[in-house]
Fold:
Amino acid sequence: MGTLYLVATPIGNLEDMSPRAVRILREAKLIAAEDTRHTGTLLKHFNIETSLTSYFEHNKLTKQDFILEKLSQGDVALVSDAGTPAINDPGYELVQAALAANFDVRPIPGPSAPIAALTVSGLPTDSFLYLGYLPHKASDRRTRLAEVAEQPYTLIFFETPHRITDSLEDILSTLGNRRICVAREMTKLYEEYWRGDVHGAIEYFKSKEARGEFTLVIEGKPTVDRQRWTIDELSSAIQNELQAGKSAKEISADLATQSGWNKKEVYALVNSLK
Structure:
């Protein structure tokens, strides 16, 4: 009886591949991969010669019995194109089937885009809600956002470059002008983290061509008694707003409600940071 290993792989930087992940992939009898060509490049880089089979959204059910048969002969490793398998990628059904057939299922932890973005967002990390990609259609997208509008948890979404500004505008109209971190191309050459409020993010990403993969980390519904920001938090938000080209008057109006500081205090700090 083999073990099904869910092996996390780099989301961009190959240096994030763990020694244990490399060993498990070398020792497995088979690797089930979302894209065999993509994974083949990864295996070549680490001199791994284990056999590959495809396992992706459109064949995951037809491949299930084949993979379970291979598990009866030895270990199988499941990988996605990047990050942790079964998180917004195929894997859940295979894990369920393997457990039902009394196979052992174990994780090989590693990179995960939602967690990576959350940890550096500057937003609360003690409770969060990950919801994958926002729907393609604007009406469906707004409905999904409305469903979580009252939740106090930090929200995490994926988004594509061609929909990023539309989604941000729907976030603004549905959730309000909350704090947000937009993570782009994490661990890659053009890695970027934009922190501020949703209105500022819209202006910023309208001003430049959107490229790469986006992860949005959004503040949960603010509580009435939210703690006043520290001066460092406020200063960081002001710098983001200044970079977006906003005036001192606009910044003081936008940040006063969010930060717990009054408009005069924010206005004075903006002028001191120019």
User: Anything to note?
Assistant: The radius of gyration is 22 Å. The mean pLDDT is 93. The longest strand covers residues 128-133.
